[in-house]
Amino acid sequence: MKKIYKRILSLGLAVGVIFSLQESVHICAQENTQTTESIFADYGDENGGETDTAEQITGTGAEENTEQTTEETETGKNTEQTTEETETGKNTELTTETETGEIMDADDTEEAEESVWMMYDGTEEPEEPDEPELDEGFHQDGSVAINEMNFPDDEFRKKIKKYDTNKDGLLADSENRKITKLEFEEKIQTEGIEYLRYLKKIVLTDGICSIMNSSSLEEIEISDAYKVDHLRVASFSGCTALKSLSIDAGIDLDAGIDFTGCQKLETLTIKEYMGAALDLSPCIALKKLDIENLYGKDRSSIAKLDLNSQQKILELSLKAVKLSEDFVLPKSVQKVHVEGVSSKKLDLSNYKNLKEFSVEGSTENLQLNGCANLEKLDIEDYYLKTLNLSGCSELTEFDTLDQDNLKNIDFTGCKSLKKLRISSGGLKKLNLQECSKLKELEVNAGKLTDLKLPEKIQKITFENLLLTSLDLSKYNKLEEVYFEGEAPKLEKIKCVNTSLKIFDVDRFEKLEKLRELDLSNNKYLKEAEFAAYGYGTYVDPVIPNIERINLSGCKSLKTFACHKAPKLKTVNLTGCVNITELDVAYTGVGSVDISKYKKLVTYRCAGNNLTKLDVTKNKKLRTLDCQKNRLKYLDLRKSTNLTNIELNDNELTSFDISNISGLGWYKFDNQYYTIAKGKKIDLAKLPGFDMSKIGKVTGGTRSDGGYGSVVTLTDKKTNTVSYEYDVQNGWYQTFHIKFENPDNLASIKKVKCTLNKNTYTYDGKAKKPAVTVTLKGKKLKQGTDYTVKYKNNKKSGIATVIVSGKGAYIGTVTKTFKILPKKTSFTKSVSVNAGEIELSWEKADSATGYEIRYSTDSKMKKNVQKKVITKNKNTTLKIKKLKNNAVYYVQIRTYKLADGKKVYSAWSKVDQIKL
């Protein structure tokens, strides 16, 4: 034995031999012989190394002989080991053939084995370990039994069994590796999740449960937690790898949530929480927190939220959360969203890391001063009164929506702000002078009376201004100005010598009180449109009461349009040599010298009472609309490019369009030249009249046997002579001459006409006020000297009386009187909710609509607000946003639209409502 032992040592095969000896002792016969890779393999190897099971090592119950041969590559020699074992384990003979062919018996083998073990580690041979339990925990090969002890929940165990591909009832390590994500639509208990060593994510869609002691789980999603009525505690303790937890629904807990061991949790979302204080102190790595609906033991109480341990948090979202007065945000936070949070004051002063902040809720005082890195701010808070943004030097854009109560804003030091929108019904002062980079501003402030802007502002949009005058002249970088709301007191606008390119007033929001507009010396301004024209229709202007417009020095101006402004008397276009479109129709401008506008293509001057018009210098003119004037002569012989002409309703006696070949649209009708007295006219003396072009004459006779130029009236019925005239190479147009007083009768137009009553109230019957007519103190007699007719005198609105001369008198005079719509009154006027009243009234069939006024002043002289209902079938109204604990007084009246004007009934009696 010693000889053999020394030979083994000399060849360096001691370990190899002991392996063979150890296997010979412990390996029993099996049906299929397996080769052992390493008896010292680590059973708990996390890198996936597979090990022999206890059954493979002990081989119990073997009934056949097993022969195992090991080929040793290093020596090139074979060692043959044979084990013969009976069914009962008796008569076991072990033989070993050595390198020299010597045979070792069993005793020699045990002696050699014992000696080698002692030489290997200096200790006695270790005892054989106890056989591990097969039903609980991990086996030595890393597998785990899929049974009720390891996975008590039926649904959970059922899901795990799907990964048991060989159906042996064990979850082998190779099978376990495939379980990285689990989803459950049923309520489950997750006991045994700790055995799923490679699980990264779990999704539960039927309520919350505790998930504990998972060292691999990184992400948990839970929805419909509200389906669980009540739990004592939800625990995620021991989930040491957990990074993200989302609970999408409600939690009702007594003891709260246990986050013990969740030191790596970075993202936490909880949609509704009710219970004990939310203890997040173990979550020291938390970076993103989203909480919605946080309550105490009931919805009226406060659940304490303490974030003092979360000094790495970067994003925070709080929705419908009642915060305690001592709540403090971590200074590390970079992005904050607050919605529906019950806190009168939010103080984030000097949060240097804060970059984004948005708020929706009931905060009255918001302090963001000193937030030097704040870049984005969004506020939707109706109750907000004070906002401090001083020192927010990186803020580039800010949008406030409908902050009706906002009264104080501090923008001091907001030097990076480029775009700003402010909507506040309570703001009276706005100072933006330190916002040196501000380029765009939208301001909706119905009470704003003091506005200071930065010098380099480029674009301004005004909505609802209370200013009486606006001077933008010192902002020489200003390029665009828009008016998109009411400005009920604005009378004067001045924007002189700037970079203005666009000046626009929304056609749906008129500047009713504007009287004067000075846009002179804006060399980049190309358009100044205050009215629109389309499909033959002049749309109502946006500055209907304007009196003076100055556009002198606007060298780039191409379009000016302001029609249907009857008070407009002066338009200064000096230096506007590039103008191509000019529209001053239906204004009081009168005659405009357009001879200097050589590039003019379109000219509209309809309805201006013009008697003269010279277009001979405007050779590029293509559209001319001068209808409804008093033009007696118009020379069109040089206007060869005209394509659209509207000359109808003038006093022209002739015109010549023989040089115009491309005429498309035209209107020439209703040319009536008037003769005040007498019944003769010499056509040859009319300007531009060519007797060779006259055609058929009706209602009169020509002198010289029908060939002369003098025409005498013969139609005493109409007092009108009509004739045809060749306007273009055989194209005859009809002209008319009206003889107003052929018999030199006295004109009734100079009479004094009075009505015995000027106002009636609608009752469905025709109204006929008595008429008195006097001329130079002489009372004329109805039926002899004049006749009377009534028009529109039954329905509510404006009725007309027509007095026509008769006998020795000629002409007509008209007078008007009002028929007021029937009054109405409130049938209900009550306070229904806080800050809200509800009104209803009787329908008035004779009215177009209703007007309601309300105030806290019983005399209706102070702070009066009005509401207009445009349809008479609407007989109810709710008025909101009123002061609580105040007394309001309300009245209603009806109105009728007549010729674009409102005729009002008397006011109803005053109703008193206490909120």
TrEMBL record:
Disordered, as annotated region: 46-95
Organism lineage: Bacteria, Bacillati, Bacillota, Clostridia, Lachnospirales
PROSITE patterns per record: FN3 (PS50853)
Protein name (database record): Internalin-J
Domain of life, source organism: Bacteria
Composition skew (Acidic residues), residue ranges: 64-73
Classification via InterPro entries: FN3_dom, FN3_sf, Ig-like_fold, LRR_dom_sf
Boundaries of every Fibronectin type-III domain copy: 822-915
Pfam families on file: fn3 (PF00041)
